[in-house]
Automatic annotation (TrEMBL):
Pfam families, A to Z: YkuD (PF03734)
Stated name of the protein: L d-transpeptidase catalytic domain
Alphabetical list of SUPFAM superfamilies matching this protein: L,D-transpeptidase catalytic domain-like
PANTHER family: L,D-TRANSPEPTIDASE, L,D-TRANSPEPTIDASE YCIB-RELATED
Species per Swiss-Prot/TrEMBL record: Akkermansia glycaniphila
Entry annotation: catalytic residues: 184 (proton donor/acceptor), 197 (nucleophile)
Length: 319
């Protein structure tokens, strides 16, 4: 019996050593080295980081789904287009502004859907515009100004006859590509919903617009960057669209040509000949006989009747 107990005890010790979890890395203060390494699924979970720090913000149970924005005002006061960069995480649907390698702002974003994904990669701000409107996505209105299509694509669809296309407003626009991808204010959900751009709430978008300049780096990554804002090369590869729409102009129906007027139909004869009105005899020009006919019964010469087309007396004939 003792031998069986000892053998079972030995097996449990061996299994315990095989399934042991490596101790979590700690920082100098004894806290987890990364706020993303903490186990938030624990029912007794308590945020281990000091309040009002960025690590505490990331270690919150509702991060990254929260709509809240993190600001480090001391870092933002130093920020400019030369010492800053923006990192957009497609995985977390959040963007972060790094100032000298530290997070100065973290806010929610909304990127492209699967059929029009926001392309991952390294970009730079190409241009900025406070008031901007899309030349492709927007709505169609009819001649009276009433919206007929609230999600129109001017490249593939045609507005109603007499109507027009109204581009979607994109305040605080910062262009990243020449094919229409950029950062701008827009409706933000916690899942991808845009046509490829990066939508942001107004407050962080306005603050970011004042900090960046043309040439400021913007990184769009499929993963999560490290603590200094560096993203792996594999996470910078764009993801292909799933069933992308084929740009195709909607054919415009040709206007129907006017039909020729129908030929006049001669009136049908009256049922009672007595009621029919005789048509007037057509006026005909009397023909001039080449040679007056000779009368057999009358020996006198026959004088031809004067022709209305014959020249009057004393008028020279045409040569």
């Amino acid at each position: 019996m003792n031998k069986i107990f000892l053998s079972l005890l030995g097996c449990s010790l061996i299994l315990g050593s095989c399934t042991s979890v490596k101790p979590e890395k700690k920082d100098d203060a004894g806290l987890p080295a990364s706020p993303r390494s903490v186990n938030k699924s624990d029912p007794l979970y308590k945020n281990p980081y000091p309040a009002n720090t960025y690590n505490h913000f990331v270690a919150r149970k509702d991060y990254p789904k929260t709509y809240d924005v993190f600001y480090d005002n001391a870092l933002l006061a130093q920020a400019n287009g030369g010492n800053s960069k923006v990192v957009v995480s497609l995985k977390e649907q959040r963007a972060r502004l790094y100032v000298n390698g530290k997070v100065g702002m973290d806010w929610p974003v909304c990127t492209g859907v699967r059929s029009r994904p926001t392309p991952a990669g390294s970009y730079k701000v190409l241009g900025k515009e406070v008031k901007h409107a899309s030349n492709r996505y927007g709505r169609f209105v009819d001649a009276s100004g009433k919206t007929t299509n609230g999600d129109a694509d001017a490249f593939t669809e045609t507005p109603p006859e007499g109507g027009a296309f109204v581009g979607s407003p994109m305040p605080y626009w910062q262009r990243l590509t020449n094919c229409g991808v950029g950062l701008h204010v827009g409706k933000v959900g916690r899942s991808p919903r845009s046509h490829g751009c990066i939508r942001m709430p107004k407050a962080p978008a306005e603050k970011l617009f004042r900090i960046t300049s043309v040439g400021t780096p913007v990184i769009v990554t499929n993963g999560i960057e490290d603590s200094s804002g560096h993203a792996s090369a594999s996470d910078l590869k764009p993801v292909a669209a799933v069933n992308p729409p084929v740009p195709k102009k909607k054919p415009v129906a040709p206007k129907p040509e006017p039909k020729p007027a129908p030929a006049e139909t001669p009136a049908a004869p009256a049922a009672n000949p007595a009621d029919a009105t005789p048509a007037p005899a057509p006026s005909a020009v009397p023909a001039v006989p080449e040679k007056a006919p000779e009368s057999i019964s009358d020996p006198r010469p026959v004088v031809p009747a004067a022709s209305p087309l014959a020249p009057a007396a004393g008028t020279p004939a045409a040569v």
